[in-house]
Design brief:
The structure is a single chain. The chain contains twelve helices and 24 strands. By secondary structure, it is an alpha+beta fold. The chain folds into four domains: 88 residues, Rossmann fold (3-Layer(aba) Sandwich); 85 residues, Translation factors (Elongation Factor Tu (Ef-tu), domain 3), CATH 2.40.30.10; 112 residues, Translation factors (Elongation Factor Tu (Ef-tu), domain 3); 181 residues, Rossmann fold, CATH 3.40.50. α6 packs across α12 and α8 runs parallel beside α9. The longest helix is centred in the C-terminal third of the chain and has 20 residues. It is flat and about 90 Å long. The C terminus is likely disordered.
Length: 507
């Protein structure tokens, strides 16, 4: 807008364009008629934008003064701006060269679908992301490193002698190699990176902030896995490109993050290949797309750290204790009775010879999590650490009792997915807010309602109640002993605390 010049939104969109690898920019200065077609106004805006964008890596920047309302310099040259001799917007768009040499890049074929209509045909369907391929070419499976050769290139109209970037085809290989959706066939001479930790630019879309430690779904061209932002290194200030410390990313903000995925993915840096270097983040609860990412590089720690195979596993540890590992995750408002019920529950289990351990919210904050506060970001990290400890304890064959407010459903789901099937038992200690505030055993509700404590769950920080917990304890009008009896009844019906491993196998 010629009346307003370079706005914050202009800067943000330019930074995003730069991150996306766009190299040709049209600076369309619109509504020039509302400033009397003044060349001085136009020149000032152009200079402001040049100064702002000089480090964004644009190859060309073409400024055009125009009036969209009247068509001046949009589809026809303006009679009101004799001082401008450049192209109209449409003239420029029709002639600017934007072709990318993706055919010349290394071969990348993300597998979208394994086509097996009968026992005699096995093809891998997808769209070639870059490079080209011909029958007889050697290819490598990115994640496993196994190699084969292309036997046929099948398309809708018949077999092809060659296929290149942008074409949707089915590749048939000489050998029976194992490839599933999300993997990639690549050139053996130039393989992509395969890692479960990498750095990336992230543009955040959602009204709920990005929180390090929270689990999201990461989706690439054809692959999908759980992912966590392990570190928000900095946020980019769209006005001066300053790197600002931040604990979260708000809507429309851009940041540099480290990301950890549950399983390795195959990728190229976004600067080298836009298709194989891009991803989106999806909220696990709403299934909404909340962010877009451009991979910068893998992290060295991903290359240096590997799982160590151990001879003594969870099964033999549990067999020695004659029990089945489990994680009982107690969640509810402060003052709901979680700790009291959990403590009595452990005493009952312990008295029957069970091997147990309680992870209590307040106790853990005295040690492992003493550096964390009560912001949303800190609450997420609090639960992430506790979930990892609970997983290790379950791996040791213990029955773990976790008693945390754990207010966010996304983090409880993350904890559940860390455990083996059937090992995570969510216990919702359901006590109304009014009753918790009436009890107020630590005097916290009174202080929070008076504004003395910020980010207090149920007052000025939300509690997302479980929708389908394994155990729902409605405590109003009942004693803690009655709640433990209900827990024992649930256990006895399912034999959760007993050894259910098949002793006929090995470790």
């Amino acid at each position: 807008d010629a009346r307003q010049g370079v706005l914050r939104q202009t800067r943000r969109h330019s930074i995003i364009a730069s991150l996306l690898g766009i190299r040709h920019i049209v600076l369309a200065v619109n509504k020039i008629d509302l400033v009397d077609f003044d060349q001085a106004v136009f020149d000032r805006i152009v200079e402001d934008y040049r100064q702002f964008s000089r480090d964004l890596g644009f190859q060309t920047m073409v400024p055009i003064p125009m009036s969209a309302r009247y068509g001046d310099n949009v589809s026809r040259r303006s009679d009101s701006m004799e001082w401008y001799s450049g192209p109209t917007l449409i003239e420029h768009l029709e002639t600017v060269s934007v072709d990318e040499a993706v055919v010349e890049l290394p071969f990348r074929f993300p597998v979208q679908y394994v086509n097996r209509p009968n026992l005699d045909f096995r093809g891998f369907a997808g769209t070639i992301a870059s490079g080209s391929v011909s029958p007889g070419d050697e290819v490598v499976v990115a994640k496993s490193g196994k190699s084969s050769r292309v036997k046929r290139i099948v398309s809708y109209g018949g077999d092809l002698a060659q296929a290149a970037a942008g074409q949707a085809v089915t590749l048939v290989l000489d050998d029976e190699v194992e490839i599933s959706r999300g993997n990639m066939l690549v050139s053996p001479a130039a393989r992509p990176q395969v890692a479960d930790q990498f750095a990336a630019n992230i543009v955040w879309f959602d009204e709920h902030a990005l929180l390090p430690g929270r689990s999201y779904i990461l989706r690439t061209e054809t692959d999908q896995t759980s992912a966590t932002v392990t570190d928000l290194k900095y946020r980019i200030n769209v006005n001066d490109f300053a790197h600002e410390a931040a604990k979260s990313l708000e809507m429309n903000e851009v940041g540099i993050c480290n990301i950890s995925t549950r399983t390795p993915i195959a990728f190229d840096p976004f600067a080298e290949n836009r298709t194989t270097g891009a991803f989106i983040l999806i909220d696990r609860i709403s299934n909404a797309t909340v962010g877009a990412g451009m991979i910068l590089h893998s992290l060295r720690r991903a290359e240096n750290i590997h799982w160590q195979s151990l001879d003594v596993g969870k099964r033999v540890r549990a067999d020695m204790k004659n029990q089945r590992p489990a994680v009982f995750w107690f969640t509810g408002l402060s003052g709901s009775g979680k700790s009291t019920i959990a403590n009595l529950f452990e005493k009952k289990l312990f008295a029957t010879g069970r091997h147990t351990y309680i992870l209590d919210g307040d106790n853990v904050r005295h040690g492992l999590n003493r550096d964390l506060g009560f912001t949303d970001a800190d609450r997420v990290e609090n639960i992430r650490r506790v979930a990892e400890v609970a997983r290790l304890m379950a791996d040791a064959g213990l029955i773990v009792i976790v008693s945390f407010i754990s207010p966010f459903s996304a983090e409880r789901r993350m904890a559940r997915e860390l455990m083996a099937d059937g090992e995570f038992i969510e216990v919702f200690v359901d006590t109304p807010f009014e009753e918790c505030a009436r009890r107020d055993p630590k005097g916290l509700y009174a202080r929070a309602l008076n504004g003395e404590i910020k980010n207090f769950t149920g007052v000025d920080s939300p509690y997302e109640a479980p929708e389908n917990p394994e155990i729902h304890l409605k405590t109003l009008g009942k004693s803690a002993e009655e709640m433990v009896d209900a827990l024992e009844h649930w256990l006895n019906e399912r034999d959760i605390a007993e050894d259910q491993y098949d002793n006929g196998g090995g470790i």
